[in-house]
Design goal:
Strand content: under 5%
Number of strands: 0
Structural class: mainly alpha
Largest sheet: none
C-alpha cells in the first residue's frame, strides 16, 4: 500500500493544508483539530459530530488556532520560511516552482536527501513545515505502527490521541473555544467505548 492510499492520508493532507493556508511554521494537533471539524468531507464522522456538539465549527476552530499561534502560544514556530522570506519580497513558492520546473518534481526532495541538504532537514527553507512532537505522539497513539490499516473510528481515535498528546497549543485553543478538554475527552472516549 502506498503512502498516498493510507487511510490517514486525507486527514493528514487536510491538517497540513490548514497549517500552510495560515502560513504557520509547523503542523500540529491544533491543525488536526480543524481537520476533524464537521465539513462536507468529515460530517459523517463521530469526531466531527462530537466537536459540533461542543460548539466547535471549522470557522471557530480556525480562528482560535490562528489567535493562539499569532500570540506565540502554539506548539511550534509562528511563521513558516515562506512567510518570513515574503516580508523581504522573496517569493519562496515561486522559487520552489522554478526549481521543480527546471530540475523535476522530485528535485527538492533530492536536495534534502543529499549529503549537503541532509544537514538542513527539517529546517531548510524549501522544506514543508515539520510536524510537532505532539502531532507525532497523537498519530502514534491513534495508529501505532500500523499506518496502512484503518483502525475502527479513526477520527475519534485521532481526536482522543490529540487530547492526550500534552499539547499546550491545543489546550489554549480549546480554552478560547470555551471547550473543557476533560469533557471533550470523556465524550470521545464514551463514543469509542460504545462501539468497542
Amino acid at each position: 500500500m502506498t503512502s498516498a492510499s493510507r487511510p490517514v492520508t486525507p486527514i493528514l493532507a487536510a491538517t497540513r493544508e490548514e497549517a500552510a493556508r495560515a502560513g504557520h511554521g509547523y503542523v500540529g494537533v491544533e491543525h488536526l483539530l480543524i481537520a476533524l471539524t464537521p465539513t462536507p468531507a468529515a460530517s459523517s464522522g463521530s469526531a466531527a459530530r462530537i466537536l459540533a456538539d461542543h460548539g466547535v465549527t471549522p470557522a471557530s476552530a480556525r480562528g482560535a488556532v490562528r489567535r493562539v499561534i499569532a500570540a506565540d502560544d502554539g506548539d511550534g514556530p509562528r511563521w513558516d520560511p515562506g512567510a518570513l522570506l515574503g516580508t523581504l519580497g522573496i517569493d519562496l513558492f515561486e522559487i520552489r516552482r522554478q526549481v521543480e520546473e527546471r530540475f523535476g518534481p522530485d528535485a527538492i526532495h533530492q536536495l534534502y536527501t543529499g549529503p549537503v541538504g541532509w544537514n538542513l532537514r527539517p529546517r531548510g527553507p524549501l522544506c514543508d513545515p515539520p510536524m510537532t512532537p505532539q502531532l507525532k505522539r497523537a498519530l502514534n497513539g491513534a495508529l501505532g505502527r500500523c499506518w496502512d490499516v484503518t483502525p475502527a473510528r479513526l477520527g475519534e481515535r485521532l481526536l482522543l490521541a490529540a487530547l492526550d498528546a500534552d499539547s499546550a497549543g491545543l489546550t489554549r485553543v480549546l480554552h478560547l473555544l470555551e471547550v473543557e478538554p476533560g469533557s471533550l475527552r470523556t465524550a470521545v472516549a464514551a463514543e469509542l467505548h460504545a462501539f468497542g
